[in-house]
Each structure stands twice: as structure tokens, then as C-alpha cells.
Amino acid sequence: AEYMGERPRQRGHYRPGYGTGYFQSGLPDLVPDPYYIQAATYVQKTSMYNLRCAAEENCLASSAYRSDVRDYDNRVLLRFPQRVKNQGTSDFLPSRPRYSWEWHSCHQHYHSMDE
């Protein structure tokens, strides 16, 4: 059986999936929640037409950009959510100021980080 509970933190060691063991004063430390990802991951089959926003941002495998791929062709995706905790001692801030964020109308949100 797999143990899913919290493991105690030992000085000088790190817990896999729980960020670094090196705590820097005044810095963010972003830690993904591996159990949330594991519990909510699923496989989805969808058409290229429904993936046009992902294609616009070059988020698909290189085979999706071949000239013979059509809107009605299907792709199999591994979908997973993200839940990230900042266990650092400072806020995580975007690298660009708010006035320079880019609106992406295809999927209706701003991009605030440099690529």
C-alpha cells in the first residue's frame, strides 16, 4: 500500500514533491501538489479544431503541425490540473509589470510571464 500522508521534514533533507530543502529568506518557493495531480489526471480524445488555442501557442507535439493534419483529426491528451503552494517567505510575482501583460483572446486570459 502506498503511504499518502505527510512525511516529517528533517533538517538538511527535502521531501520529494514538496519543494527544495534550501529555504532562502525573502524568496518564493513554488511547490506543486503531486497528490492533487495524481488524483485528477485523465486521458481525453479531442479534435484538432478544439485544440486551436493550444496550437496557436505551440503547446502541441510537433506531429500536430504537419501539413496533412486536419481540423477533424483527433489527438489523445493527458490532462491534469495544477495546484501550487508558495511555501517561501515572499510573494511570487510575474516578471513583467501588469501594464505589459498580453491578452490572449483565444483562451481568454492574460500572459504575465516572459516566454
Short summary:
The protein has 115 residues and is of the alpha+beta class. The chain is flat. It holds the Pfam family Lysyl_oxidase.
What distance lies between the first and last C-alpha atoms, to the nearest angstrom?
41 Å
Reading the helices and strands in chain order gives: EHEHEEEE
By DSSP, the count of extended strands is 6
- Average pLDDT number: 82
Structural class: alpha+beta
Strand order of the largest sheet: 1-4
Poorly predicted ranges (pLDDT <50, ≥5 residues)?
1-14
Could you tell me the radius of gyration in angstroms? 19 Å
Figure out the total of helices. Answer: 2
Largest sheet: 2 strands, antiparallel
Proportion of residues in extended strands: 15-25%
Estimated helix fraction: 10-25%
Shape: flat
Quaternary structure type: single chain
Pfam families: Lysyl_oxidase
GO molecular function: copper ion binding; protein-lysine 6-oxidase activity
Keywords: Copper, Disulfide bond, LTQ, Metal-binding, Oxidoreductase, Secreted, Sulfation, TPQ
Protein name: Lysyl oxidase homolog
Question: Would you kindly provide a written description of the structure presented here, covering whatever features stand out?
Answer:
It is found in: Secreted, Extracellular space. With 115 residues, the chain is of the alpha+beta class. The chain has a domain of 69 residues. Strand 5 and strand 6 form a beta hairpin. The protein is flat and about 50 Å long. The termini are far apart. The N terminus is likely disordered.
